[in-house]
Amino acid sequence: MANNEMKKYDFIEGIVFDGLEPKAMEGYSTGDGGDAKSNHLFRSAHLGADALEVISINALFEKSEGGKEEGSESGGTESGETEHEVVKPEETENTPEQEQASEDVVAGMTAESGSTRYATSAESINNITVPENATRTGSISGAVQNGATFTNETSGKSLMVCNTSEEPADVSVVTNGGNVYLKGEYNDIYLSGKSLPVESSQYPNVHGTISIEDTNQPVSVTVNFVGEDCGIDYLGDETLTVSDGVTAVTASPEIYAPNATVEIGGKYDVLTATVSENTLVLKSGFHANKLILKKGNIFVNGTDINDFVDELVVPDGCVITYPEYHVTQESNSKLMGSSPANGKIILDTDIELTKGRAYSALASGKEVIDLNGHTWRCGDTRATDSNLGSYYLRGGKSDVTIMDSVGGGVFENNHSDYLIFSNGANVVVNIMSGEYRGYTHTLYSLLGTINVYGGTFKLLDAETAERDANGNLKFLLNCYDANYTAGTARIKVYGGKFYEYNPAVTYGEPGGPVSYVAEGYHVVESVEDGKKVYEVVKD
Asked: What is the residue range of 131's domain?
């Protein structure tokens, strides 16, 4: 492939960069409870409809005629990379006034009595060391001097340092277990310890580079990155967790951790990352307008990288992976949870549930359920769940796709009024394939959108169910009348087979008959075993 050639990947399951096979990620687990760790299988599979345009990283380092990498400067490497090293700002001695401020805060934190937190202020702040025998947390406000070092030798007491100057300061943070919280403007930060956390969402604004000393333990950093010259240098091999507290897109940091797994959240303009082969983890809620991965692979904590990245630049051989959760009759917590799994759930056996409601999701998230040729049968909801559906999505921004990759998969309820019930303005349910059998309704939208792209739909109580003027079932699919009229409850049909029900002529809504069939599609009628069957196909 030419260095400047665009590559476009569809990320269909089993297709990965440069022909690499799908593979498990060694040593990484999502840590979600319920299923055994062995059930967390990470495979390359893009489940979205639209593919990203993916550029080879080689195109970024195209050599000029003189042989020098374009964009390289003095101090860079032959490959155009900037030198990365862990740098500690030069420390200066305290002035008498700064020493007094340091003594004041330490005295307050080691006092035998007083409030649980000691707070003070000073005109200028420099070096502070909190001794191991501190009994209280402390905070100090003032103009932080360049080169200041804040050391916390306690195992659990914290020190808050608030830089009141508008000038960003270079500082060092050394911790033994107790935290040092930074607030205000900072440039380069040296960290020796397990974390750089925040207190009460008071994030430090970091304009420069956070250099992290390798202390042979996982490290977490939570800050607000600012501008284009910010980032992290970490040469250790423990997991590095990075969170950016700004909800708006304000920064373009570079994360250089070539030996570590990096788990990252937040929102960015351009994120540049160098990580180990195992890997860059995009946490739920992450988004970058552009992601440039110079080394490593990508794990997406969701089902579709398009939800996380608008433009993607990767090295040749990069593998993008997603979480998979294999469930069985004995281990089915992912099907019974209260929030979407942010991954793919695969049935490995038939699953029979005694209670009616299999799933009731309030939280936001995205998941794909693969029946995988198996039957998922739910019990009677009427006795315990006030006629709610076997699969009930309420509130939040739940986005659920149900499919059957093998064939023969069935989702069925037992004497319940609804099989799949949408009750949230931002809920989206996509039915791709499989067979769906319900009582009274298979699909019902009180609020939200249900899209049908395929599958087979039947009523188990068809013999006694209500019929329309044409003798067809009236409520195989249905929306809540008032919300259908208001446009907040929607069903759109792009495919599928419907037994004794015509989705193009349905009497279940006000002013019926109405059509659920999407524009550009139509119904083909046939007869199977003496029953009318309506199949939706493209014009």
From this structure: 96-317
Edge-to-edge order in the sheet of strand 456-459: 351-352, 375-378, 410-413, 435-438, 456-459, 496-499, 531-538, 521-528
Q: Are residues 172 and 206 in the same domain?
A: yes
Residues near 294 by beta carbon (within 8 Å), at least 6 away in sequence: 57, 81, 272, 273, 274, 315
Q: How far is CA 186 from CA 56, 182, 222, 229, 240, in A?
A: 34, 9, 13, 12, 20
CB 390 within 8 A of CB 418: yes
Nearest to residue 194, comparing CAs of 225, 222, 229, 160? 222
Q: Are residues 345 and 250 in the same domain?
A: no
Which secondary structure element, helix H or strand E, spans residue 376, and what is its range?
strand 375-378
Per-residue pLDDT of 328-356, as tens digits, reads: 999 887 776 666 678 889 999 999 876 65
Q: What is the pLDDT of residues 29-76, one digit of tens each?
A: 333 333 322 233 333 333 333 445 566 555 444 433 333 333 333 333
Judgement on whether residues 139 and 268 belong to the same structural domain of the protein: yes
Shared-domain flag, residues 260 and 122: yes
Long-range contacts of the stretch 226-233 (C-beta < 8 A, 24+): 226/250, 226/251, 227/251, 227/252, 228/252, 228/270, 230/206, 230/254, 231/255, 231/256, 231/272, 232/256, 232/257, 233/84, 233/85, 233/86, 233/87, 233/209, 233/257
Residue 61 counted as domain residue:
no
9 located within any domain: no
Mean local confidence (pLDDT), 217-236: 95
Instruction: Please answer whether residues 457 and 428 qualify as being in contact, where contact means their C-beta atoms are separated by less than 8 angstroms.
Output: no
Same domain, 236 and 288: yes
Over residues 64-123, the pLDDT tens digits come to 333 333 333 333 333 445 578 888 988 899 999 999 999 999 999 999 877 778 999 999
Could you give the number of structural domains in the chain?
Answer: 2
pLDDT of 511 above 70: yes
